[in-house]
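Morning!

This is the sequence you dropped in the shared folder:
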Amino acid sequence: KVSVVGTRDGVLIISSITTGVTIRMINLESEQPYKVLITPSWGLILVCTQLFQKGKQKWCIRVYTINGDFVRSSVIGNQVCSWCSFQSNSCFDYVMFADITYKVYMAEAFYLDFGQPIHRDNSPIINVRWLKDLEVGTSVTKDGSISFFSIRVEWIPKLVTSFIQKLSVERADDAGFVKRIWFVGECLLVLRSNRSVPPVLLIAGVI
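The structure's back. Tokens below.
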């Protein structure tokens, strides 16, 4: 087991809880960490950082292995106010976060491929969590409201999604339906409709 500490001067310190020995110190250079999270399955280290580029403030999420090896980083649009990580039934780690614009995003922790928000509240979010037993997300806002949001998930192999990730296709199928396919994070959304049938949103994803 390890502990991870971020300092104000932009250093990430990974230490062994058992021995107390520092395993690694990572210099984040111009980025300052303000949130740290360790995923439950793979033990990935997620770090929220803030940085200034050309006088503009930006926010980023960085991924490291449990040994401190850098995996990747992703620039996000706004500051994270609450986040959590959870393990899927297929043992993949996911990260879900709420930002200061009241929006909630989710992606596989290793890839950080955040798409469109999966939920939005009407007031500042102070906490967000994924309830694994119910397979729903929940958010608590500053005004005391609690929201539950869910998607209907149909499991499909990661190998298949890798070929169609971020794909946007519009076509007519044999039944005359119009399908629109696109990705929101790790969720594959399919919209079917025609003149006689109201639009139906089918959601498939890898969680």
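Headline: The longest strand covers residues 45-53.

More detail when I'm at my desk.
O.
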